[in-house]
Design brief:
about 150 residues, mainly beta, Jelly Rolls, six-stranded antiparallel beta sheet, four-stranded antiparallel beta sheet
Length: about 150
């Protein structure tokens, strides 16, 4: 199972604090394959938004996918919530932006979060699909950027 890591610290041009992606070697996400990410942080009063970024095949068959997103702070505090990721709207229109052999979509998971202590923030994403495999998934990632 491959892991692609790209860490970008905040700059004036893009406001991105962190980006990290997990690549599915078999282009399928097994429901028992929890995705784990770690992000070093400095104590700050700056607010950030957390996005779940998904890259999938154009023929991805699901209208939506339920995931559990858990955030672990350096102090040991934990926040967890289920999210329904919608890939197709009520009119049957694809919400992802497709370019050739792949489609990308970002989902806002947490808005205005403050990392007010130094240390390692951990993210865990669980696929809650009732089927064993979710075929067509290429990558899932975390993007943390300054709130606007």
């Amino acid at each position: 199972m491959g892991l692609i890591v790209l860490v970008i610290f905040a700059s004036c041009t893009n406001n991105i604090l962190y980006k990290q992606y997990y690549k599915f070697e078999k282009i399928s996400w097994n429901r028992f394959e929890f995705l784990n990410f770690e992000m070093p942080v400095e104590a700050s009063s700056q607010e950030y938004d957390i996005y779940l970024s998904v890259r999938h095949l154009p023929e991805f068959a699901y209208r939506e996918l339920e995931v559990n997103f858990t955030l672990f702070f350096p102090s040991g505090e934990m926040r967890t919530a289920d999210h329904v990721l919608k890939f197709i709207d009520n009119d049957g229109e694809r919400l992802s932006e497709c370019l050739g052999d792949f489609c990308d979509i970002d989902f806002l998971i947490r808005k205005g979060i403050v990392f007010n202590e130094q240390g390692i923030v951990k993210f865990e994403i669980e696929n809650k699909n009732t089927r064993l495999e979710t075929p067509g998934m290429m990558e899932v990632g975390i993007i943390v950027r300054k709130s606007e």
